[in-house]
Every structure is written in structure tokens, then in C-alpha cells.
Amino acid sequence: MIDGYGKADKTEEGENLFNELISKKVSLNSVIYNTLIGAYCKNGNMTAAFGLLNDMRSRGTPPTLVTYSYLVHGMCNIGLVEDAKSLFGEMRKEGLLPNVVCYTALIGAYSKLGQMDKVRNVLEEMASFNIHPNKITYTIMIDGYCKLGDMKEAAKLLTLMEKKGISPDSMLGLELHISHGD
């Protein structure tokens, strides 16, 4: 039910249900915490999300990769990209390795800011951990280069994506084709 409230942008009702579970001494697991953390992050309420992370830890429930994925996305969505990146170190201390979803959130945030040099740095870090970009990662990067007018780099990424056996969305190829004036 907490998930339903979160999806319906009724985070307060989800929080009330969560608090009711606590008052009834229901044992809370990471799924319950993550559901509410995810709702907070979706709404940009990072203070509440991190408060819940602290509560989660204090009650002996370790954060999971899902917990951090929500937090990274939430921080990126409110423009705190460097803070989101710093969560990667925290994840590693907890024995969790950032995955393509976490890295793609960073890439998306840097792309929106037009910081393609930082996108390249994130890609290099991914490669150093043997994490491969997926279709979403490539699409975000290509879009970032297109928005900057760097069609050459966007086309290079599209070619690389196809070489790796990842089929682009049909609109992506059309966008590049039109931009090239072909």
C-alpha cells in the first residue's frame, strides 16, 4: 500500500501507514523502507529520504542497492550531482557496488548540465568496474551530445551502440539522420 501511495503522489498517506507499522511493532524490512524512500526521492524530498535511511540503519536494516539507486536518482533530479556521486563511496563502504542504473542517473544529470567531460569520466569509471552502458545510458549520452550540437560525437556513440548489439530506438536514429541533413 505504501508503494501505491507513492505512485499516486500521496507520500503523506504512505508515511502515515509506515508510522502505523512502527507503532504496531511490525518488523520492517528493506523493501518497506525502500518503497517510502523511493517516494520521497521521486518528490524531491531528500531530507525525508535521508532521514529514513538513518532510521533504517538505526533499526538494524542495512541499505540495499535499491536504497542507494533511489537516493542517487533523487539527488541527481534536484541537481545535486556531486552529492549523488559521493554516495558511491558510501555504497562501497557498505559492500555494495553501484550498477548501471546508478551510473546512468549520474550520466543523465551531467548530460542535462552539458558536462559531457564528466560523462566521459563516469564512463571510464564504469569500464574500470566492468559495468557496461545499456540502451538507456547510450540514449541519454547521445541526447546530451545532440543538445550541445555535437552531432559527430552523437553519431560515434550511435555506431558504438550498434556495434555492441544494442538497437537504438527508431526515433533516435531518425533524430540523428535529420540532424545530419542526410
List keywords for this structure.
182 residues, mainly alpha, 11 helices, 74% helix
Q: Work out the radius of gyration.
A: 19 Å
Q: Helical region count?
A: 11
The helicity comes to over 70%
Low confidence ranges = 177-182
Percentage of residues in strands: under 5%
| Main β sheet profile | none
The total strand number stands at 0
Order of helices and strands: HHHHHHHHHHH
Look at the structure and give the mean pLDDT.
85
Question: What's the end-to-end separation, in Å?
Answer: 51 Å
| Helix/strand structural class | mainly alpha
Which word captures the global form?
elongated
Report on this structure.
With 182 residues, the protein is mainly α. Helix content is 74%, strand content 0%. It contains eleven helices and no strands. It has helices at residues 2-7, 11-23, 30-42, 46-58, 65-77, 81-93, 100-112, 116-128, 135-147, 151-163, 170-180. Helix 5 (65-77) runs parallel beside helix 7 and helix 10 (151-163) runs antiparallel to helix 11 (170-180). It is elongated. The protein starts with a helix and ends with a helix. The relative contact order is 0.07.
